């Protein structure tokens, strides 16, 4: 498994992975159409090493995207291809995201979680800190995880 910064020309492949991953949980076409914009990564969003992909043998299996400015970080996205769900890749991605957030000087990461993913995030040490209505008409759990800053960033 290799984790690396995404390239802008991978936006279409990342978007396709994101949509496959969301559809895996049984969401119908009407929902997927409403969420289309939220389930899109554009080339201009891939900058400053904030989008990290996981690949094996050149095959894209997952990614995450960080946002925000210190001290308040955001986990904008974290998706795993359905073929890799249950393999430990989600844990690898969240741990990498938290470490990268610490390098950027974030004290915590916050995000809206799909309800299907909330137990996964709770298991990894995140806490539910509220709920938020999102642009495509759903109320989602808001999760937060503490980031341990490296010694030089304290």
UniProtKB/TrEMBL annotation:
<dbReference type="GO" id="GO:0016747">
    <property type="term" value="F:acyltransferase activity, transferring groups other than amino-acyl groups"/>
</dbReference>
<feature type="domain" description="N-acetyltransferase">
    <location>
        <begin position="1"/>
        <end position="146"/>
    </location>
</feature>
<dbReference type="InterPro" id="IPR000182">
    <property type="entry name" value="GNAT_dom"/>
</dbReference>
<keyword id="KW-0012">Acyltransferase</keyword>
<dbReference type="InterPro" id="IPR016181">
    <property type="entry name" value="Acyl_CoA_acyltransferase"/>
</dbReference>
<protein>
    <submittedName>
        <fullName>Putative N-acetyltransferase YhbS</fullName>
    </submittedName>
</protein>
<dbReference type="InterPro" id="IPR050832">
    <property type="entry name" value="Bact_Acetyltransf"/>
</dbReference>
<keyword id="KW-0808">Transferase</keyword>
<dbReference type="Pfam" id="PF00583">
    <property type="entry name" value="Acetyltransf_1"/>
</dbReference>
């Amino acid at each position: 498994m290799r984790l690396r910064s995404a390239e802008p020309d991978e936006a279409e492949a990342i978007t396709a992975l994101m949509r496959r991953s969301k559809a895996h949980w049984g969401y119908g076409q009407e929902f997927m159409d409403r969420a289309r914009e939220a389930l899109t990564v554009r080339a201009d969003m891939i900058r400053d090493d904030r989008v990290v992909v996981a690949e094996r043998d050149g095959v894209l299996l997952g990614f995450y995207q960080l946002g925000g400015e210190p001290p308040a970080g955001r986990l904008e996205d974290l998706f795993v291809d359905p073929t890799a769900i249950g393999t430990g890749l989600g844990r690898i991605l969240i741990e990498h995201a938290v470490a990268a957030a610490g390098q950027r000087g974030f004290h915590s990461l916050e995000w809206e979680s799909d309800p299907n993913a909330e137990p996964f995030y709770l298991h990894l040490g995140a806490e539910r800190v509220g709920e938020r209505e999102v642009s495509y008409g759903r109320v989602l759990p808001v999760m937060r995880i503490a980031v341990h800053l490296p010694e030089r960033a304290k």
